[in-house]
Design brief:
The chain is of the alpha+beta class. Among the domains are: 68-83 and 318-472, Beta Barrel (Elongation Factor Tu (Ef-tu), domain 3); 92-111 and 284-315, no CATH class; 153-250. The protein contains seven helices and 21 strands. The strands form five sheets. The protein has a six-stranded antiparallel β-barrel with strand order 3-11-14-13-12-15. Strand 13 (348-360) and strand 14 (366-373) form a beta hairpin.
Length: 480
């Protein structure tokens, strides 16, 4: 039996025990490997069951020392910048209404102030005046024909017609007397014929005498019929004389009068047309104002006067600035607002927003403002001016301008979380001095990096300056 000293190790004793047995070297190597494997498994198991100690963390060094400021909420008065060109509020284009006439005189120049009705130019009207004289002569002839249609006869002709009518009436009276006489003769003839017929039957007279009396009755009847026919003829003649007398006294036929009246009116219209054309050869100012352009030249003639203006002018010297603004700014504008302008010569003047046009351009999304400005001869139409519209004060969220980092198509600001910064994409609005409006991306009170923001990237560890207000210093993990 082996004796084991106090200093003998368990593996050593085990080896001696194995080695003293015959044929045990091979078995010894196998046992050694197994024991080593068991020991390693035990070590790993013991480490897994042992409680962990405090972790050792590697703290990153700050990349930059920064100032931090809170996102602020202020009351600000917005100013809308606009620009546009000066133009006439109501421009007037003056041209010629008559074609083919030569310009004889020009009485106004560019820059002149003219009054309503003032002669600006005259055209040659000699041809028109000759046409007017001819039409007036035709008008006099037409008026005479019209009067003749109304009363075609003279007084002595009317007297003759009246005499003929009286004579026709006298013939009627005479024929009526002849009828009365013929009726009396017929009565006597009938009585004689009846008496002689009776006597002939008695044999007192001969049949021949009775036949003669009967023939006399027939003659008397024929004369009465003839008298009636003559009376009818006299009455027809009297009627014709009466109608003729009316025509002579009261005028011609209705259709003749209407024809003469239409001819007269037609020539009158022609006279008025030529008179209007002659009046149009005198080019007058339609209103008070300043002549801005003269394109009338002495001797110019032909159809060119129909295709171009002779003069351009500003009605009543009213000027305006036409400016375009985005449709999103329309809610902050209203008619009557004042606009402060600065001209090319640095001269300042004030305008009044007169009209906000109701149409918004569908392509550009811009609306047009028409701003009335005071007239000045130096404020020439066409010059470009800049203006500002002061809008109502309102609450806005702002940060210092240098806290915003601009890139090509977006803006950033860095907020502080613990000891590191977080990049925020923000949308900026108007500027107010050294501050800029934050439309979206930040909330009031959030701490943002003020200096050095352009050298940071998302997640960088920073050190906050001691002068930064404690209310916005990081709560944990920040180096003072």
């Amino acid at each position: 039996m082996l004796k084991m000293s106090a200093k003998t190790e368990l593996p050593e004793l085990y080896l001696k025990f194995i080695g003293s047995r015959p044929g045990s070297k091979k078995r010894m190597a196998t046992w050694v490997v197994s024991i080593v494997a068991l020991i390693m498994v035990a070590v790993f198991a013991i480490k897994a069951l042992m409680p962990k100690g405090p972790a050792t963390e590697t703290k990153k060094a700050p990349v930059l020392t920064v100032d931090v400021t809170p996102v602020a909420r202020i009351t600000a008065e917005r100013v809308l910048d606009i620009s546009g060109s000066v133009s006439a509020a109501d421009p007037i284009i003056i041209g010629s209404e008559v074609q083919g006439l030569r310009i004889e005189s020009v009485n106004a120049e560019e820059g002149d102030f003219v009054h309503k009705g003032q002669v600006l130019a005259t055209l040659n009207s000699s041809i028109l005046r000759a046409q007017l004289a001819r039409e007036k002569a035709r008008l006099r002839s037409a008026e005479a024909n019209y009067l003749k249609a109304l009363q075609p006869n003279r007084s002595y002709e009317i007297d003759g017609v009246k005499a003929a009518f009286d004579q026709a009436n006298a013939v009627i009276s005479q024929e009526e007397s002849n009828i009365a006489r013929s009726e009396a003769n017929l009565t006597n003839a009938k009585q004689f014929a009846n008496r002689y017929t009776a006597l002939a039957k008695q044999g007192a007279v001969s049949d021949q005498e009775a036949d003669n009396r009967t023939t006399g009755q027939l003659v008397a009847e024929a004369e009465l019929r003839n008298a009636h026919q003559r009376l009818q003829a006299a009455q027809s003649a009297a009627k014709q004389a009466r109608e003729r007398m009316k025509m002579f006294i009261f005028g011609g036929r209705k259709e003749d009068i209407m024809t003469a009246a239409a001819t007269t009116d037609e020539i009158k219209a022609s006279v008025q047309q030529i008179e209007s054309q002659i009046a149009q050869t005198i080019i007058r100012a339609p209103a008070d104002g300043m002549i801005t352009k003269r394109d009338a030249h002495l001797g110019e003639i032909g159809t060119a006067l129909q295709t171009k203006p002779l003069f351009n002018m500003i009605r009543d010297n009213r000027l305006e600035v036409r400016a375009q603004v985005p449709e999103t700014d329309l809610v902050r504008l209203h008619e009557g607002q004042q606009v402060s302008f600065t001209g090319p010569d640095a001269r300042e003047f004030t305008g009044i927003l007169r009209i906000i046009t109701p149409q918004v351009d569908m392509d550009t999304r811009l609306a047009t403002l028409r701003i009335e400005v005071p007239f000045s001869k130096d404020l020439r139409p066409g010059i470009f001016v800049h203006g500002k519209v002061r809008l109502a004060a309102e609450q806005v969220t702002v940060i210092p301008t240098k806290a915003a980092v601009s890139h090509d198509d977006y803006n950033l600001a860095f907020t502080l979380e613990g000891d590191h910064v977080v990049a925020r994409t923000i949308r900026l609005g108007d500027r107010f001095g050294d501050q800029v409006e934050v439309v979206s991306g930040l909330k009031p009170g959030e701490p943002v990096v003020l200096t050095g923001a352009g050298f940071l990237k998302d997640g960088d560890v920073v050190r906050v300056e001691a002068s930064t207000p404690k209310s916005i210093k990081p709560a944990v993990g920040a180096d003072e």
